[in-house]
Amino acid sequence: QVQLVESGGGLVQAGGSLRLSCAASLHTFSIRTMGWFRQAPGKEREFVGYIYWTGGTSYYADSVKGRFTISKDNPKNTVYLQMNSLKPEDTAVYYCAADVREFGSAIAGRKDNEYDFWGQGTQVTVSS
Questions:
Q1: In whole angstroms, how large is the CA radius of gyration of the chain?
Q2: End-to-end CA distance of the chain
Q3: Taking the chain (128 residues) in consecutive chunks of 10 residues, what is each chunk's mean pLDDT?
């Protein structure tokens, strides 16, 4: 069955680092894009970054550029979000999302409605 399982969330002090993992089990579906989004209390869901599965090109929101890095392990269908120099404003529930080839349409990027499957989310809290 299709599922995305996140891990690595937790509590960290400002300036610290945290690494999130998202393991995708997508049956016969082929990943085109794996994205990361976050949602803080009272805020709309916000784009963080994405990575193309075959070419490996990544893209980041301005708010995290230079601090966050997305990487992947294709044989394991796993994507990572390395978060450095964390700030209190990074506190949010972080979600991974997958866009698959079989569902067609334009390849997913910065918009949440472009993705086909979503993880359950993991809490990241940055203390000051």
A1: 14
A2: 40
A3: 95 98 94 97 96 96 98 96 98 98 93 96 97
